[in-house]
# Entry
Amino acid sequence: MSYVQDWQAVQEKIRTEAWAKIVYDTLLETTEWWVHHYADDPERITGWGHNYFCEACGSRIDFEREAPHANSCRSCGHANKGARFDQAWNYLYRDEAHKHAFYAGVLYRLTGDDRYPAYIRRVLSFYCDHYEQLQVDVPTGYAGKIAGIYLCDAVGMIWLLQGMEMIKETLRSDELRRYKSHLFDPQVELLDSHCTNIHNISCWMKAAVGMTGMFFGDSSYVERALEGPFGLLQQLQEGVTAEGFWYEGSFHYHFYCVEPFTYFLLFARIYHVTCKGMEEIVKRMYVFPAELVFDNGVFPNPNDGWPNIALTHYAGQYEYANQLFPDAAFEYALSRSYETYYRPTMAYGGMIENSPEGWVQRLLFGKGKYAGEELIRLTKNYPASHICSLRAGKTVLFMKYGLNTRSHAHPDLMNIELFDADCLWSHDISSNGYGSFLFLEWQRKTIAHNTVIVDGVDQVCSERGVVEQFDPERNRIRAQAKEVYPGVDYVRDIQLQEGCLSDTFEVISADKHQTDWLFHCQGKMETEFETQPCAPIGSEFGYQHLMNLRVCTTDDSWSIRWVMAERTLTLRMEGCLGTDIYVFEGYEDTTAKKRSGVLVRRHGCGAAYRAVYTIE
# Structure
């Protein structure tokens, strides 16, 4: 078996399919630049990609391959200066060089042009010649060698190995020995030494170790990858919930985690390696997100990840999955990944790159039209994953009521997201790069979510939630989380009908506390009650980022609405003595993008917030 079974079929797509010709021409153009201009320098210090976010507005800085010190933000125009930005650029340069080794391998198979294997050799020789000289400057405990942190080393190795697989027959035995002894052997030892837990990073590193073993014929590396301590089989057995969700509870990290398994399985088929049940779990990991995606192709977005993620951003992975183990769920996902479903993303890394026509994975494995039958997706609770999806017609409610780990978790138990008729009214903004002030001061704070804050500080991340009642026929869930704060439990009871949501949020405590109930929403906010400008109500935990803050104090029931494109969402809440209603604007993924919200403050021994949302 080869990486692609029929290269002539790929060439035929390019000749006859407009989308394929566009993808091919783009692939050719970008790879030609690297073939002609690649020039790395062992004096470059590689840094952390999460530092490549504007210090002024929080936007991701676009990588400009010919401007290593510009670091200019296209969103606000700010020039970001300093070593951390330059070193992040150095990492991105090498990351692109690694990807283009794979692209060069694809183009060699399609054209037979020897310049493409020559490019791959140049990249490999650079590392072999200068391996001991290479330097990194990254957070303590994460140091790699060739691309900043060791995670990025593993990602780079996998791109390089796939490119090498494409040109393997052109590589002499002495070249292979040199690449193995001077680059891949030391990298295997480095990566394997850091595989000490169940984590998405370990998945990438173990996959890189195993693929190195398969490519170079070293069975000891394959065994270490599959069955060694914290090997790939253990990662799947302990890291994937019974429903098929990666235990860190993030859709982006779910895809990021399953990606290296996908490459590993393709190599295993090429090299006839038995994977002992890995295929079944990996397939389930690709089916799972298709069950939960909103009807417009956008995902719920709990915990860390990237903002505004959608099927289109993981289309490349679904192309591989559909090649490895075809499934109707994958056809559905791919039918909602291209053309009108395409949307740009600020994320980088892995196969997240795409265009309206697709990218190299569609060229290799995909087609022009996908079956795309509607999946029957019903109200469903996922108790092992601590999430629930309620569905009534075109209205969908996603709820996160617990965690399996603090890794990549946000302190937002009982957070909800609300979708109706192609409109995502209220969504989780997830996170930017981990070096961004927006991430540190807003996105990872309780206040940026649709939940309750006690005494003005972030929730303590409880690791478990319990469903007290679940009635799929009535689209109702009642979930409890204990010790969200010391001595404070939460219960949220939600029932969904098409266009209508009933929501009771109880804060249970024997002691007096201040409670702040929050809801963030898209659209123009309109109130029927009078509000007055007010001073800031906090200086930390994200309260300092509440903008245009106004307040109304009332004992009565009240309502507020958001208007968007001839549709209106109205929130009505039952009155309570001494309620302060604050309306505000808050950030989304950058300081340039804002949405409005409401914060409902009460004081006492516990609280019960009873709300009804209607969409008309």
